[in-house]
């Protein structure tokens, strides 16, 4: 949607000043709404998702031997990519670890995740959850 294109049509369609003004208000509110959805939506989802600290990464490597920082980073990226299609992202801290395991078991089916991706996401979420 291009608000300026709509405004232009409005300008030609309406000849009274008040009508033109009405059309402008209509357009700006749509443009503002689109802006909030595009910018606000992104910031509220991916941006507020925590990045793991070094201490958390070390803890993950102790818990699941062989887990690398790279895998944990991939888990976070996949979480944003694969888990935000149907609903907004749930912050890892929103649920205790045991609850997350059950949720992820169900959601990896919803998101049709290959096992490897599900495992990366699970390690990221469980590490970030505490
Ligand atoms: C195909 C759509 C879809 C995808 C993709 C999806 N979800 Fe969901 N999710 C749902 C639906 C529907 C619900 C609400 C109903 C339910 O709990 O089963 C839900 C609920 C949730 C909840 C809330 C559960 C609760 O009990 O409060 C969490 C957390 C969640 N999803 C996490 C995820 C994660 C993590 C992923 C990525 C692996 C994901 N979702 C991908 C559809 C989806």
Question: How widely separated are the two ends?
Answer: 42 Å
Shape: globular
- The percent range for helix content is over 70%
Main beta-sheet strand count, sense and barrel state: none
Order of helices and strands: HHHHHH
Give the bound compounds.
heme C
Assembly form of the protein: single chain
Q: pLDDT average, as an integer?
A: 77
Low-pLDDT sequence parts = 1-44
Structure description:
This protein has 130 residues and is mainly alpha-helical. It folds into 2 domains: 3-46; 50-128, no CATH class. Helices cover 71% and strands 0% of the residues. It has 6 helices and no strands. Helix 1 runs antiparallel to helix 2, helix 3 crosses helix 6 (115-128) and helix 4 (69-82) crosses helix 6 (115-128). The longest helix has 29 residues, at 17-45. The model is unreliable at 1-44 (pLDDT under 50). The structure holds heme C. Heme C binds next to helix 5.
């Amino acid at each position: 949607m291009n608000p300026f294109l709509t405004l232009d049509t409005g300008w030609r369609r309406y000849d009274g000043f008040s009508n033109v003004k009405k059309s402008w208000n209509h357009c700006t509110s749509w443009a503002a709404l689109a802006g909030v959805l595009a910018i606000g939506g992104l910031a509220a989802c991916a941006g507020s998702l925590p990045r793991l600290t070094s201490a958390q990464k070390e803890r993950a490597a102790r818990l699941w031997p062989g887990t690398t920082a790279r895998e944990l980073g991939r888990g976070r990226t996949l979480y944003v990519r694969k888990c935000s299609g149907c609903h907004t992202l749930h912050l890892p801290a929103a649920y205790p670890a045991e609850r997350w395991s059950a949720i992820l078991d169900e959601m990896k089916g919803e998101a049709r995740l290959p096992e490897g991706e599900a495992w990366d996401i699970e390690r990221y979420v469980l590490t970030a959850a505490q």
